[in-house]
Structure formats: structure tokens, C-alpha cells
Amino acid sequence: MFRTSVHTSTGFRITHLFVAALLATVVACGSDDGDGPNEPQGNFTVAVNPAALTITQGQSAPFTVTATRTGGFAGAIAGTAEGAPAGVTLSPIAIAAGSNSAQITATVAATATPGAYPITIRTTATGIAAKTSTLTLTVNAAATPAMDIALNPAALTIAAGAQGTSNVNITRSGGFAGAVTFALQGNAPAGITVTPPAGPVAGNTAAVNIAVGSQVAAGNYPITINATGTGVAARNVVLTVTVTNVGNFTLAVNPAAVAVTQGQSAQTTITVNRGAPHVAPVTLAITGLPTGVTATVNPTPIVGNTATITFTAAAGAAIGASTVNIVGTGGTVTSAAITVALTVAASGGGGGGNVSFTFCEDTGLPVFVAYQDGNGAWTRANAAANNVYSFNIASGRGGVAYVTNIGGADLSVQYGSAAELNALGTSSCGTAPATGRTFTGSVAGMGPMDFVSVVAGNAFATVTGFGAPTYTLENVAAGSFDLLATRFAFTGGAGKFIIRRNLNPANNSALPVLDFNGPEAFDPVQRTVTVNNAQGQELTAFGLYVLQGGSSGGLYFSDFEGSAQTTRNWYGVPNDKRAAGDFHLLFVNASTGVNQSEMRSMARVFREATNQTYTLPAVLSAPTVTSLGASGGNSRLRAVYNPQADYGSQWSVTYAQNNGASVSISVNASYTAGGAITIDVPDLTGLAGWNTNWGLRAGQNTTWQFSASGWDASFNPTSPVFTEGAVVRSASKQGAVTP
Known about the structure:
The chain has 739 residues and is mainly β. It folds into 5 domains: 44-140, Immunoglobulins (Immunoglobulin-like); 146-244, Immunoglobulins (Immunoglobulin-like, Sandwich); 250-427, Sandwich (Immunoglobulin-like); 437-592, no CATH class; 624-737, Immunoglobulins (Immunoglobulin-like, Sandwich), CATH 2.60.40. The chain has a 12-stranded mixed β-sheet. The chain is elongated and about 135 Å long. The N and C termini lie far apart (165 Å). Residues 1-40 have low confidence and may be disordered.
């Protein structure tokens, strides 16, 4: 029972407190304390991070769904994606109980349509109303792999007979990173050689080399270069070559070796080979004449195509061999140069004539010299000063026989025309005077298995990695010269080259270091030689690089190891390092037997390093070797050979006995009259000064090696000047006989 009316102040306060307590109890009993079966258990909100996502076709990317929990809610949250376009999938959306986030992956198929798409992420939990958040997904189109090419420069101006280079730049896009292959589109204009970048190019730049023949007419020549790569569209680019033509010229000399006796004169003919439209008069400058020798040119200047050079030796002219340099200039074109091997013989005791043989310490001084005019009798020759032997071959053909003091008492016999014999005799000591210059130098950047060759002018030196890295060049003739150094490993490989041009240092000076790891060194270009008609023989390939003027040649190796593989690598000088007068000489040898009892070879001369195809000459037919009997204590042998088409220029036979006796005989085609080639050991026993110990002995087992060579008309064996495309073929066989 409540008392409802209390009038005293104390009673009022008691009644009020009672009512307040009662109300508090009622409220407490009726409040939401979460213990009822249908009451909510806390709450949550969700957010997507990042709220905007960009994905390229064919790719995927993650995003995060984050839940913010309230009211003590800790349960699991599940979700779905609404509004995703075709080709877009999302990994399952689930936030585990007690966790606040989940990483979701959105994957865009390559076929999905590019565009911006709002995707609703709807999340639910037991007893709680669904919550949503929006992910804005932008689908980008996948980049298409592509390439583009451009030339720098896109136009070249090249004079006829000259060369030029344009760089091709490659721009890759759309993820394309593959190699690009270049090729000439269609045929190059006649007379113009186009060399696209070799092999697939992995980098972003490469060179296109253009060589314009001397006979190409002036004008504009568009050249299309095609570029292809895997998975990208091909591209073409046009290089415009403008040819200017002021003409050019080269010089030729015949004979290239001249012998003159003190107090007399001798002549040679110079020929100006003009490249159209060159017509300017050509003036010759002659240097390198020995003391006491003068040279006159008639006519001068040369307005036609030929002139005569007359060498006149005073009575006291310096005796010996020298190299005379002839430089022609005419108009605005590049000058041309050529050399003449000039030998001055003493008057009197050494005899006179149109043939001279000069001997020196390096190649051996003679203990016996004889000559034969045509088929006449052999005659003993006498020496003049400086070991020069001069005699007259009046019939235009003949032979020379000599024995030197080097390598034992070996008899050497040469048969040929007077010009060929004279060229041989005046070059036997080289072209450098004994008073030539001396240079020293050193090599850096070589390993213990490396081999370095250095040539400068007419001098040659080698350096090996297991020796001292120094070299000396001796007897370098006066005047400027080019230097070529090559480094190759004995184990094979491409090696390195160094070329220095127009050097003219002081005598006894030290040349700058040849650093094969420095900026001066360059990589050779790799090319192939394919050998036909190998017939299963073991093949080797090697070469020389001859600098302008033919004054020096540097050895380079090219898959030197023997095998039957018919396609081999070889290494040459790139176009941007070549001079106009430089040449490559590439040799291929095929052999059979442990001691190479049968060999064939082919050599070709060419300027530009290109892939080569060689067809080896025929297998050599064996000669018939018989005995001619004995004369004066010496046995004589005869070799008879039926010429083959590949070997019509020179034939040689060498005989050797265990007692040390050796005879070598060489016959040039100019000496023969056609038909079978018969090579006899000459009978020299009746000549004063002949020693029978120098000849073959009867009853001794004698090994023989027969060699035959053939060269085309563009190869001149009496001249150091090379011609593009000249080819030499040779072969040899071995056998034995008892005279």
C-alpha cells in the first residue's frame, strides 16, 4: 500500500525516493540487454580500399575489404560482388570471425571489354542487416607488342667508289623485347652493295653499310630495308642514297720489279685505270729512290692512260734493293699509289742484264749461283757488291739455281719468264733497306693463351701471352705506314683488332701501348665460309688482312682447328675500319693423312668481309717420278705431270733424303710450251764451284712432294698489289722413290 498524500516535508521526500527507485526497477527490467533470443548482437560497416582499381586486360590486381565492428560484434562476414562485367571475376569475399579485413583479387580476362564499371560489394552477417561498398573498376585495353624503325641519317650522299653508313634505330613498345632481323627488300641497285645489320639485333641500334661501285652513275637510289620480329608487324624504311660521280682512278705498273745496272737505265710502264667520268691529267710523284738514281716520267702529266718511267743509275749509285713509291694525283679525287721494286746492280764483276737476284743474311747468303737462258747451258754467276747477282735472260725465259748457307746445303731452282725471275730475285730480301727504322712497343689486355701479331709497313712481330708483352719492329722503310695488330686465343674465338693509320714516328721511338681492352681495340665481324667439294677431308681456314698498298698483312685465325665441318666461321675487319686499299685474304685447306700427305687449298682476295663460298679444286693427279741416272756423283730425278684445269700456273717438286740433301724446283707456266709438265733435276756437276754434296745421292730413299697451283688473270704473282676477287688454287701429293 502506497501512501499517496504526505504533507510533511519529510514524508514528501521519502515518498519521492520510493517512486524513483520503483521506476528505476521497472526500466531495468524492460531494457534491451542483448540476452533475448531475437535481439541484435552489435553491428559493423565495410569499406573497399582502394575504392578505384585499374586493371589491364589479361591481368589481375588485389584490393582489400575492411570491416569496422561495433557493439562487440565479432562474427564472420560473407560478401558478394554485384555488377561485375563479363570477363571480370573476383575471388571469394569472406572476413573470418575475429578478423577485420580480407584481401580480394580481381582478375580481368583478355576478352573483357575496356571501360569503367561500378561493382557493389555486398556483405552480410548473421542477424545484421547487409552492408555495401562500391569498387570502381576500370578495365584498360592490353598494349599490343610493336616496333618501329628509323634511319639516322635517312639519306646518304656517297661518291662513286666510296662507302657510307646509316644507323637504324629500333623503338620497341607494348612489351616487345625480342630481336629484330634486317634484310634488303628486293634487289640493290646495280653496282651498289648493301649490307644490312648482320644476324638478329637484340639492342636498339645497328648499322647499314653501303658501298658504291666506281662505275655507278650519279643519281638518287632508294633502298628499302625490311625489319621483322617475332609477334610484331614487319616494318620497312627507305634509305635514299645520292651518288655523286667525279670519277676515280687507280695505278698499275708493269713490270713491278725493275733491275738497273750502275751507269745504265731501265724502264717500266705505268697505266692509269680511270673510272668514268674521270679525265683529269694525272701527275706522278716518285719517292724512295736510292742514292744516285733518278726517275723521269714521259709524258707528264699523264693525259691519256699510260706513261713510261725511266730509272737511270749513275756510275756510283747505291747498290741493292729498294722500294720506290709512286703516288698519282689528278683532279679532286683521292690519290692513288703503287710501288716498284727497284734493284741497282754493280757494273763490272757482277755482270749485267735484265735479271738480278739479291741475297741477304735473313734468307741466306749464296755459296753457289747459276743461271740458264732459255734451254741453253747452265752458267755460273758471279756476285757484285751487296750480294747482288745480275745476268741476262735474252730469250725472255730461263732458270736460276742457287745454294745458300741457311738450312743446310739445299739446292733451289726457279724456272720462269725474265720478269718473273727478276721479281723473285729483287724481293727475296724484302723491300726494306738494312738501314730502315726500328720501333719498340708493348701490348696490354692479353691473356696467357693469347697470340698477338703486329705488322707495320714491311715489318712483323709476334707476342704471346706466356712471354714478355713487348715487341720490336725492325727495318721499317722511310715514310708513313699503317699498323695492324690482332689478338687471338690459341683456344679459338673472335679476338680483337687494332688499326692505326698514317704513322710516321721517329727512328728508335716507342709506339703507344697496344691495349686490346681499351677504346682503340674493336671486335672483328664474324662471317662464314662454306666449302664445297671437300670430299670428307679435314678442313682448316685462316686469313690475312692486308693494309692499303699491300705493304703489310696481319694474321688472323678463323676456326683454325681441323675438322670435316664444311661451314666455318672466320673473322674480318668491319667496313667502318677499312681503308679503300685494304684487302682480306681467306685461305681454306683440305688435307688427308696424319702428315697431310694430300692437300688442296684455295685462297681468295676481297675487300669487304662477307660470307664466302669456296669450291675446292680437283684432287691432284699424282706425277710420275723416275730416275734419269747419275752424273758426276749426283743422281737426277724427273717428275712428269699431266696438267689439270685447276692447276695451270705453277708446278713444284721437292726431294729430300735422310742424309740431309734437298732439292726444290719450281716451274712457271711462262717457261713451258704446253702439254705434259716435265721437271728435271738440272745437271750442274760440270760448273766450277759445284759441290756434289749439294745434290741427291744414288741408292738413297728419297721422299718427294709435288705441288701445283693455278690462279686467275686478276692475280699477278710478280706484284704486291692485290685485285678484288683474285683466286689462287693449289694442291700437293707426297711419295717416295729410290734413285
